[in-house]
Amino acid sequence: MSKWPNSPLSRRRVLQAAGLSALLAGCGTGPAGRSSQEITFWHLLSGGDGERMDQIVTKADAEMPNASIKQVVLSWGAPYYTKLAMSAAGGRSPDLGIVHMSRLAGYAPGGLLDPWDLNRLARYGIGESTFTAPAWKSSIVNGKVYALALDSHVFVNFYNTELAGKAGLLDSSGKLPLVKSLEEMKALGREFKKATGKQNGFAYGFLADGAQLWRLFWTYYSQHGATFDLLGDKFVYDAEAFAESVETMRSLVDGEVASNATDYATATSAFMNGDVGLVFSGVWELPQYQDAKMPLGAMPIPNLFGTGIDATWGDSHTFVLPHQSNPDEAKRELAYEAVSKILKNSLPWGRAGHTPAYQPVVNTPEFKALRPNSDYAVTATYLHYDPPSSFTGSGSNFMTQFGDVVQNVLIGQTSVKDAVANFEERVNVLMSKAVKR
Predict the structure, then answer these.
(1) Which of 13, 126, 158 is nearest to 74 (CA)?
(2) Is the CATH number 3.40.190.10 carried by domain 154-314+396-433?
(3) What InterPro entries would the database entry show (predicted)?
(4) Which of 190, 244, 316, 424 has its CA 20 to 30 A from that of 14?
(5) What rounded mean pLDDT belongs to the chain?
(6) pTM of this prediction?
(7) CA 205 to CA 256: how far, in whole Å?
């Protein structure tokens, strides 16, 4: 994701990150007498997510008397992925790493990751049945499992239940009714606008933010049953579904239902201040909405196209084994155990807004009691990851290219037709430069 909240690192994580130079040099050691049992774990989780991961890892660590888990927190995005690739290519990789599922196609085929052994996983209660179908299927590259999902994080609609009640929009269960068309969605926005007395009913922050534009587009495009093929020699896509999806986005930011001049931070603030009744947002924003004591509801982004297809953009943080030429099998076994402990203790990750991927956690009464998490948890069963390619995925230039083109439609500077043609040309250039495997 590209919009994680930022907060000062804890003292523990600062000390862990301070050891990065030694780790990259291949000479990192743990406490005296325990260096052979230390599991190094690289990830890119900071802010609230970093604190929750630290909580989960600390508990997992306490349950492993024969090992210690050393976290190394690196900068989000390209810096992290570059260092992870370099460590794997140079034979100095950590024992465990985090990779977004959407980046797997750029790492697994090139030998930067080692596959997970299904028999080993089974001994720790981990296998296909413990994950949703999208998470398990997407973890497989060339017949082998390379990623174990920690979560699903998707794009949803958060809404203010107090404003919705004031507008008379809530059904008997206290939720917004199912929306089935663009006109119904726009009518909902107009009702929220009446309730707030402000300029708009919805907020969608997208200015200078290709990731935000991509998330809503990929949701609508996938709801058409369409996909992208980026693995051949030429970009293959559904031009009609592409155009209708972008036109739907443009229609929503009409200046009445939602503004076409709002960035991410402004949209978030407008929602938290009660200036709008609904926001298009990633589930990772849930903690700050709850901290603001908002009367909060949430729902999956509705299908407005009459196709009957449930789909939403989503991604997953996944556990991977960065490639090691001569792995220490005792430490690798401990890495398997560490991941199993983290997955089984991942309920706090659900409190961060994410839906845990390990299904025994999702099925607990404790997770089901979380609101509004449980109202959108079903999206984990039908999320659509980014189309696989070496140049797509979280924090990629692909999203930037998409944003550069589609933003101009939403702000009225170009036509949908021209935008589609422009993006096709750009993707064909990316594909011509991509490494073929």
Answers:
(1) 13
(2) yes
(3) Bact_solute-bd_prot1, SBP, TAT_signal
(4) 316
(5) 91
(6) 0.90
(7) 15
